[in-house]
Every structure is written in structure tokens, then in C-alpha cells.
Amino acid sequence: MSYPKVTIVGAGQVGATAAFVLATRSVADVMLVDVAEGLPQGKALDMMHSRSVLKFGPRVAGTNDYADTAGSDVVVITAGVPRKPGMTRDELLAINAGIVASVVASVVAASPEAVVICVTNPLDVMTDRAWKLSGLPASRVFGMGGVLDSARFAYFIAEATGAAISEVDALVVGAHGDAMVPLPRLSTIAGRPLTDLLPEAEVAELVRRTVFGGAEVVALLKTGSAFYAPGVSVASMVEAVLGDTGAVLPTCVRLEGAYGISGVHMSVPAVLGRAGVVAVPELPLTDGELTALRASAQQIREQIAALEAADV
Length: 312
Ligand code: APR
Fold this sequence. Notes:
Blueprint: E1 5-9, H1 13-24, E2 29-33, H2 39-49, H3 51-54, E3 60-63, E4 74-77, H4 93-110, E5 115-118, H5 123-134, E6 141-143, H6 146-161, E7 168-169, E8 172-174, E9 180-182, E10 188-189, E11 192-193, H7 194-197, H8 200-211, H9 213-221, H10 228-242, E12 247-256, E13 262-273, E14 276-279, H11 287-310
Parallel strand pairs: 1-2, 1-4, 2-3, 4-5, 5-6
Antiparallel strand pairs: 7-10, 8-9, 10-11, 12-13, 13-14
Helix pairs in contact: 1-10, 4-5, 5-11, 6-8, 6-10, 8-9
The structure holds adenosine-5-diphosphoribose (APR).
Adenosine-5-diphosphoribose binds next to helix 1 and helix 4.
């Protein structure tokens, strides 16, 4: 059996987790690429050792050479430096911008037809940069932020209410950072809005924990940042693309007019398929929600402007 080919740049915590999920769920063959010699090869070999136990078909390989990534259907970019305790996503900006620039040039040269999914933080700015440098249509370069933030919100909702996680449908849009916009009114338990089920103060606390969900993990780990939920989240986007499922996932996409926002990448629900972002169906938002979303966009715009002014 042959499988689609996914390249994951950055064989660190997030990249390796995504690779393992994609292989063990029989979604794709995975090529792990990293600047560190031996790291992608070692992790790939370790994963392949688990093949007879888990009985999965796809192969995982590791390389330091982009020639081995040629012909990929999807490329996931996780290369970068993770957040350290006390470090904001924004402080990562200058370091990771340089890394993303070099990675994008290499992956696009090797796989000009690929759909590219960015995971490197600060996510919205890095996705914008990856798209601009790629020369690809915006539908084929997007980012993973909203899936993770929504998953964290869903977890906190399920824990607080005792609801089965499978009954919780949570939605977070906007920037992947402190300016994210959790939408309790559009988050449901068995179809009922969270705002009808919990008092306002409790909803506010769940929102607060969601916004600081990543920082909470960083503070506990002390070295590095979250990777299980990020790895699984990006794998779910790859699965939607390769399976041409039409799943509507909160995706960091280029906005050109939707929600009255233009010229930035940030997470809103988008239809994902084999071509990448197939459509961005606009949610009916209240004035308050729209104001928060536009403030989130403005923060990203300022970060992009600062990065471009610094000419990194
Ligand atoms: N090309 C390829 N790989 C690179 C490059 C590069 N130019 N620069 C760094 N890397 C690799 C590192 O060698 C490392 O193996 O990227 C990997 C990053 O892995 P980790 O340090 O484990 O970081 P991780 O936790 O996986 O996070 C990766 O995702 O969620 C975001 O904020 C997070 O931006 C960070 C990224």
C-alpha cells in the first residue's frame, strides 16, 4: 500500500509527536527533517521499531537533506526555538522568523505542489511570513493555532462541568497568544451553549485558563513547551487535507475582508480539503465578539509591522 508523503521540518517535540500520530493512524509516510544531525534519523528509527507492535503501514524516515523531502503532499513546519518559562511567544519572533525564512525556501523548492502548515510560534506572524516568502496561494499556506486553543478550551469545559469530552464542542478564534478570542456563546455541550449552562464568572475562569493554557504547561515543564496537544492538533489538520474531508477547523488563514478584517493571518473556522483552505464560512458574531476579533487582528498586524521594520 502506498501512502501520501508528509514532510515535517523540525524533529523536536512537536514534530516528532505529529509524525508518530500520522504514521500510527496510517495517514501518511513521514519524512522528518532537522538541522541537528542524527536527531530526525534516530527518532524515525525509534518509531519504526514500534511498527510491529502497533502494526501500522506507513514509514517514518529522518534526514538533514531537503532533497529527501521532494514531492511531499503536505509540509508541516515546526522548526524553531520553543518558549522557555517566562518567555512570551512574541520574544521568539526574531529568532524563529529567520528559521522559518530558510525553511520555507527549501521546502517549496523541493515540493512546489505541497500544502504547507506552519506551527512555529509566534504562530500568526510566522504563518504570514511563510506565506509571503513561499510565493504560494494563500489557500496552501496556513497555520495551526485555533485547533489547539479550542482543544484546550474543550478540555477545561469538560473538566468543569463533568460532561463527556465527546459532547463538548469548543471554539477559539483570533491570535494564537494572549489576544486569542474564546467564544463561549458558540461553544456547546451536547448542542447547548456554554453561556446557558454556567454562570458568567465560571465561564470567565474557563476562558482565562484557556488563554494561559500554553503558559501553564511551560511553567510546569520548565524546559520546553507543550507538544502532545500541539502535535495531535496539527496531525488532525494534515488528516483533513489528505483525506479531503471538508472538516471545518479553526485555521490560521489569510483574511481578506471576512469579519471586516484584512491583511493578516489568524484563526477562524475554515473548510480544509486536498487543496488546502477550501472556504472560510463566516460565523455570525456579536458586536462584542467582532470587536475582540478585530483587536486580536490589530495585535498581529503590529507584530508583523515590527518584524518587517526590523528587517529580520
Ligand atoms: N531547520 C530545521 N530544523 C530546525 C531549524 C532549521 N533551520 N532550526 C531549528 N530546528 C529544529 C531544532 O533542531 C529542533 O529539533 O527544530 C526543532 C524544534 O524542536 P523543539 O526544540 O523540541 O521545539 P518544539 O517543542 O517541537 O516546538 C517547535 O512549535 O509550538 C511551537 O513554540 C513552538 O515554535 C516552537 C515549535
